[in-house]
UniProtKB/TrEMBL annotation:
It comes from the Bacteria. Belongs to the OmpP1/FadL family. It is a multi-pass membrane protein. The keyword Transmembrane applies. This is Long-chain fatty acid transport protein. Pfam families: Toluene_X. The lineage of its organism: Bacteria, Pseudomonadati, Pseudomonadota, Alphaproteobacteria, Sphingomonadales. Keywords: Cell outer membrane, Membrane, Signal, Transmembrane, Transmembrane beta strand. It comes from Croceicoccus pelagius. The keyword Disulfide bond does not apply. One of its GO terms (cellular component) is cell outer membrane.
Amino acid sequence: MRQIMISPTIAVEFSQGHSLGVSPLFVIQSFELHGAQPFAAYSMDPAHVSNNGADWTTGAGVRVGYLGSVGDNVKIGAFYQSKVWSGKLDDYAGLFAEGGDFDIPASWGVGASVKAGDRLTLGADYKRIEYSDVQSVGNTLAPLFQGVPFGADGGPGFGWRDVDVWKFGAVYKASPALTLRAGYGRSENPVPQSQTLLNIFAPGVVRGHYTLGATVAVSDNAEVTGYVMRAPTQTVRGSGSIPTNFGGGEADVHLAETAVGLSFGYAL
């Protein structure tokens, strides 16, 4: 799954130190899957389950947010992002519920930052992601054994639960030319032990991640920013995860992630 999200923003300061913003969301998604042919026998559209190359779709939604100052040293914020309604992935209409529908779930959150000194700022935020409201993501395998095939309205999905995400971070201005950053994020696991079978294709089971970053001013107008993120290996061991119709047994899924980024900024 690949996603590109474009979100132009309009913000209005309605009172000194308090602003509201609105961002229309425009999304392009691409999905490609190989190796899921065994599930075709349980699909309403067996030809559109697996090995069909990359399919593309577009979608739209909206995000609204608030940012405010409480005194000189505290900032607070909140946001709500609607579900992003996407077109259907026709080449995988036999896999995803509702004939290939794959919306991006709604989310909302709150956060705050505190200036703890001339050089140090601390921040924390909370976010809720509502996976269960998207059938292809939130539905479990149970409908399959009630006679509802893959691809149907109300059909089987990945069984992801809604999750809570907590993040904590710090920014330290080491010098006029150097800013250091560090953060930690922790979330609930969206994948229950009973739903690991289909999640061998999407093992989104990492729970914690650590991030370090820095910005270096290389001139009065130019700066370079880099970061590294590491999410240690997380394993979910299946329990009742492979139904007898599929041969029985258990499916264990695990995932670790590492990401690096580098950007260059120049002020005209």
